[in-house]
Amino acid sequence: MTNPKSIKRNTILLLLLLPFYxxxxxxxxxxxxxxxxxxxxxxxxxxxxxxxxxNNTTKAYDTIFIKTxxxxxxxxxATGRIxxxxxxxxxxNCTGYQLKTIxxxxxxxARLGSFKNGSPSGRDQSLExxxxxxxxNELLTIKFAVVLEVGYSNNKPHTESEQPRxxxxxxxxxxxxxxxxxxxxxxxxxxxxxxxxxNSFAPNGRPIVWRDWKTVxxxxxxxxxxxxxxxxxxxxxxxxxxxGYAYIVVxxxxxxxxxxxxxxxxxxxxxxPDGFSSYVWKCRGNVIGSDYQCKIPNATEGDIYTCxxxxxxxxxxxxSTTIKRIKPVADFKFSTTDCTxxxxxxxxxxxSVADALHPSDASTSLTYQWNFGxxxxxxxxxxxxxFSTSGWQKVNLKVTSYPSTCTATKDTLIxxxxxxxxxxxxxxxxxxxxxxxLKGYGADxxxxxxxxxxxxxxQDTLAVGAPGGxxxxxxxxxxxxxxxTKYINISEEPAWAxxxxxxxxFCVGDSxxxxxxxxxxxxxxxxxxxxxxxxxxxxxxDYDVTATNQRGCILTQSIKVKEIPLPATFFKIExxxxxxxxxxxxxxxxxxxxxxxxxNMGDNTNEQGGTITHTxxxxxxxxxxxxxxxxxxxxxECKDSASQSVIIEPFVPNxxxxxxxxxxxxxxxxxxxxxxxxxxxxxxxxxxxSDGWDGTAKGRKADPDTYFYIMHxxxxxxxxxxxxxxxxxxx
Length: 731
What we know:
- By secondary structure, the chain is an all-beta fold.
- The chain has seven domains: 28-47 and 74-253, Sandwich (Jelly Rolls), CATH 2.60.120.260; 258-322, Immunoglobulin-like; 332-416, Immunoglobulins (Immunoglobulin-like); 422-492, Immunoglobulin-like (Sandwich); 498-564, Immunoglobulin-like, CATH 2.60.40; 572-648, Immunoglobulin-like (Sandwich), CATH 2.60.40.10; 655-729, Immunoglobulin-like (Sandwich), CATH 2.60.40.
- The protein is built from one helix and 60 strands.
């Protein structure tokens, strides 16, 4: 690396000596910072290959490396060896994501070289930019970051000349290397390790050394008027297989101190060139600041301030400035054409002053920022502007005096009367029973003439309804010398459809959904204050929907929604207890109009009607039938249901005849029953497994008589029941 040398220069730059036009427009630095990609930059690539040369001294062949001819390539380079970085949040993966690929405060950087997993030969690449030096760019600032893989083979490092490498060089107009400048840089993977480098590992696991963003600069004041070539070169290791690349940002700026000491301010702000590692401000030998900006409270004209600034490489430079108060004045004139040759183009002639306090001093200069009120701007001193609208325009001129950066502004209203840009806004149709509002634009004031000849006063709007017709608008300039007439035909909006679909009723406990349809694009239901085409209703009442069509016309429709009661379902059953002998029932309900009744009898059969009779044919002695009544309104489909039960109990005969005719020969078989005679003597006791009483007592036929019984069983709910009664034995 070139040893930094201190370059001291104590030149009092009276800012008045620097014409700002050199700063405002310099085609030589239009893309030095990659703002437009690689425009005006030149990229080259080359490589090395192995060769053998016989050594007469050692009587053996030495390996040598031969460089191929550099080739100019289109940028960005196709294989990724020269690319533009534009993601300001990205970090370099070879540094463990510690190195930002774009330094803070910048939008772009160039990456020269690339990471690779190895190749048969080294790859080298360069970037060049030719810069013509003038007072606007004589301070060159370069920021760069370097990533170099440590080259080795057979467990031994390559020599420094073979290691990956990064070089910054400047050459003069004749191609000679400019030496002893702080911008010089030449490091390889070994020397970089001793220059505040950091260590890491590439994704391939190999060791690398890398240098975070560093700033170097070059004072090119002595090369003013010459072309300087800036060159950056990165090299992979010469034997191949180890990479090297760098990130680069370049900037150029004037070599002077900006003094902002504007009329009306007591304080001055001094600004030195940016990008240095340290600053020292002095006045009368005293240190007064250590930033690139220095604020001077209650500044005095004529005081001299000096700034000494130092690069990261240790190079120093110094500048001085003399305080002077600046008062710019913004002013301009304009001219428009007459009504006969009306145009929307206006010529503006600048009459601003860079410094009204020192009018004879030509060292200050102005930049211009025009704002024409319709989005158009200009930075020219004198300009011609074509307005996109007619009428009154607010024009603003802001001037900045350089190098002080003091500003002044002027706002002016001007009138442009241009008939092609004068017209009528508003819908050409009105909704039935409503009006449409028309508005004139582009003129100072207006007069409306309706189809029947009626004229309005001076106004910019007009409400038009039936019968419509041809409407005239006269637009005037403010002095009424200029005018133009525009026309519009107004008609009534044709009829359009709006309907409400859905049931206008719902059953108790239910709801109904209504849907508005037709030519509307927006719908609003007033009752529930809800938007949208559909609405779900749970409460009876009147419901209004308001629809708006594409043209903004409004229609309203109403619908009355009823709540329908559910049909009655209370019914009677007679009898509610049956047995195998008495198994017919009657079900009935008070008949309502338009109500359909369906009975589910609980035995897989159904009945229809308000009154029905039903006979159960099941063989069980004990149980229950659930009867469900379903009632349905035939008109509104409202439904309800109810259920009751019929109980089945054992049949106990009051007479039995045990005469052997196989009919009624046994009393209550399969039941627990006790039979007593008139004297209370137990004559029979049966169980659930017994065949029943056969009319005998103690082995002989019992006398015909009436006997008392007690019977025990479990009902359908498995509850114990006891039945007592009399049975008559007949022979």
